[in-house]
Write a structure and sequence with these properties.
- By secondary structure, the chain is of the alpha/beta class.
- It has a single domain, classed as Aldolase class I (TIM Barrel, Alpha-Beta Barrel).
- It has 11 helices and 8 strands.
- Helix 10 links the parallel strand 7 and strand 8.
- Helix 1 packs parallel to helix 2, helix 5 crosses helix 7 and helix 7 runs parallel beside helix 8.
- The chain is globular.
- It starts with 6 loop residues before the first strand and ends with a helix.
- The structure holds phosphoenolpyruvate (PEP).
């Protein structure tokens, strides 16, 4: 892990409830965690509750959403805007998670619009990108990732990565129990930083690049030893407070 402040983000997907939110808000306090940023992205209906519990327990948790609309407001049934997220004190939004891309058909261009919409409204976007197993076998990993990043650069400019986060999430590693090896992850993270550096070397050095895909309490420490891994986006293991705490502690001690 480089000198960038690590970010450990939990993506609860369509899981969790109010009691889990209360448990997390109480356990993740400043005595437990003080040198890294920790974020929980619960289902959107619980974002407000998480923010309230964080206040009530003086928790260090940051509050985020798993998705956000590219539109500001209006006739978009079922969508949630950046203003709504801000009103309930969310400060991060995941955009372009592989499930949104694969199941809900989100294109690199749409994801770039969401990224920009979040960023210009002071919500930190976490841009997810990663290849499928087939794309890896076909040696297309870097092409897929470059395409997702280029869509953001074209719409929002390279400066937009000054205040954004990237999460490398190989699709074949998400929810499968088959994490990328630290070396595989580092190779892609290095590619991402190098690709950004072609546009702006300073921006490339400053952007946090998280790894996501079956991160757990046993494999996190080795992943965090890699130079270009600045934290993790965690699915399944972020639902169990002990496991998530161990991952956070591993990130703290890797600094
Ligand atoms: C995710 O949902 O982004 C994810 C990485 O899930 P898991 O950690 O369960 O693979």
């Amino acid at each position: 892990m480089s000198q960038l402040k690590p970010l450990i983000a939990g993506n609860w997907k369509m899981n969790g409830n109010k009691s889990l939110i209360s448990e997390f808000a109480q356990e993740f306090n400043s005595q437990a965690i003080n040198e890294i940023d920790v974020l929980i992205c619960p289902p959107s209906i619980y974002v407000d509750e998480l923010a309230k519990q964080v206040d009530a327990h003086e928790s260090v948790l940051n509050v985020g959403a798993q998705n956000v609309s590219e539109q500001a407001s209006g006739a978009f049934t079922g969508e949630i805007s950046v203003d709504m997220l801000k009103e309930v004190k969310a400060s991060f939004a995941i955009v372009g998670h592989s499930e949104r891309r694969a199941i809900f058909g989100e294109s690199p261009q749409l994801v770039a619009q969401k990224y920009k919409q979040a960023l210009v409204n002071d919500i930190t976007p976490i841009l997810c990108t990663g290849e499928t197993e087939q794309e890896r076998e076909d040696d297309k990993t870097f092409d897929v990732i470059a395409k997702d990043i280029n869509a953001v650069v074209e719409l929002a400019g390279i400066e937009s990565f000054k205040n954004g986060v990237i999460a490398y999430e190989p699709v074949w590693a998400i929810g499968t129990g088959k994490s990328a090896t630290p070396e595989q992850a580092q190779a892609v993270h290095r590619f991402i930083r190098g690709h950004l550096a072609k546009y702006d070397a300073e921006v490339a050095q400053g952007v946090r690049i998280l790894y996501g895909g079956s991160v757990n309490e046993n494999n996190a420490a080795e992943l965090f030893k890699q130079n270009d891994i600045n934290g993790a986006l965690v699915g399944g293991a972020s639902l169990v407070s002990d496991k998530f705490m161990t991952i956070c502690n591993n990130a703290q001690s890797s600094k």
